């Protein structure tokens, strides 16, 4: 008869805890999805025909998946999301580092940053369309102006909270400024940069849909708005759900994996 020692019991405890946490998360997700479908079904009965049933929506999703126009709009929107995400992330990160490292730059940009964070995102979109028209440039400028301040704020906070002792060490050992930037500052900013990137991506794809609905003739947002004007609520929900699922897969599957890989040293 095998006897369990205290060390064996202690070794098994973390495994049991991990298994329990997974079960709790799985149960929570299951209950949330079941509650969502229950509420959806009730609304489809009480607010019919404005809220389609889950079954009708699933059929509409199937039709969208075999439609060429859906993929044409999807690829256009993905290109706009990628452009807005990259531009806002780069501009916001550079500005955030500059504000956090230099007091004069901070004194100049801090009021502008506070103002940009207070302005509602649709205001940027409307003014960009009024100034630049309904072309691609208007959406690109509006999205960059709307998303970059949030990225700057996240990066700036991380720069200001950096370990100042490492700055002193690079000065004592006379490490060149460009090398000190990469070996001292950037590693400290990696968690903040990853957080800013995920926030930038999440905000970018939502605002791209709004821009397309307001001022573009094509794209996922335009397709949703077109179906809404024709009161085709099944198509509205079908396109929206498919696009949301894809964006979540990209965020969790791509950005999530990059984050785990770069932060593996923390584990």
Walkthrough of the structure:
Belongs to the binding-protein-dependent transport system permease family. InterPro entries: MetI-like, MetI-like_sf. Keywords: Cell membrane, Membrane, Transmembrane, Transmembrane helix, Transport. The protein has 267 residues and is an all-alpha fold. The chain folds into 2 domains: 30 residues; 210 residues, MetI-like fold (Orthogonal Bundle), CATH 1.10.3720. The chain is built from 10 helices and no strands. Helix 3 runs parallel beside helix 6 and helix 9 packs antiparallel against helix 10. The longest helix has 41 residues. The chain is globular and about 70 Å long.
Summarize the structure.
One of its GO terms (biological process) is transmembrane transport. This protein is mainly α.
**Averaged pLDDT:** 86
**CATH H-level homologous superfamily name of the largest domain:** MetI-like
Give the tally of β-strands: 0
Tell me, what's the shape?
globular
Radius of gyration, whole Å = 24 Å
Derived from helix and strand composition plus strand pairing, the structural class reads mainly alpha
Q: What amount of the residues lies in strands? A: under 5%
Order of helices and strands: HHHHHHHHHH
CATH topology of the largest domain: MetI-like fold
Instruction: Enumerate the spans where pLDDT stays under 50 for 5 or more consecutive residues.
Output: none
Largest sheet data: none
Q: Which CATH-level-2 architecture of the largest domain?
A: Orthogonal Bundle
CATH class group of the largest domain: Mainly Alpha
- Count of DSSP H/I helices: 10
Helix fraction, binned, reads over 70%
Alpha-carbon distance between the two ends: 37 Å
């Amino acid at each position: 008869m095998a006897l369990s020692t205290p060390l064996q019991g202690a070794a098994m405890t973390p495994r049991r805890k991990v298994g329990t946490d997974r079960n709790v998360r799985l149960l929570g997700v299951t209950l949330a999805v079941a509650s969502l479908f229950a509420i959806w079904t009730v609304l489809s009965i009480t607010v019919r025909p404005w809220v389609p049933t889950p079954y009708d929506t699933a059929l509409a999703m199937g039709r969208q998946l075999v439609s060429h126009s859906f993929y044409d709009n999807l690829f256009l929107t993905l290109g706009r999301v990628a452009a807005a995400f990259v531009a806002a992330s780069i501009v916001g990160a550079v500005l955030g580092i500059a504000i956090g490292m230099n007091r004069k730059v901070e004194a100049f940009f801090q009021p502008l940053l506070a103002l940009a964070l207070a302005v509602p995102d649709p205001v940027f979109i409307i003014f960009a369309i009024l100034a630049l028209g309904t072309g691609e440039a208007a959406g690109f400028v509006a999205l960059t102006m709307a998303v970059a301040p949030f990225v700057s704020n996240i990066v700036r906070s991380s720069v200001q909270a950096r370990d100042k002792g490492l700055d002193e060490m690079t000065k004592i050992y006379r490490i060149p400024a460009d090398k000190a930037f990469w070996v001292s500052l950037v590693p400290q900013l990696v968690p903040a940069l990853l957080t800013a990137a995920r926030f930038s991506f999440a905000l970018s794809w939502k605002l791209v849909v709004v821009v397309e609905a307001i001022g573009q003739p094509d794209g996922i947002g335009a397709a949703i708005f077109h179906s809404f004007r024709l009161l085709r609520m099944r198509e509205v929900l079908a396109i929206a759900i498919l696009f949301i699922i894809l964006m979540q897969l990209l965020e969790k599957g791509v950005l999530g994996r990059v984050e785990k890989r770069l932060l593996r040293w923390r584990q």
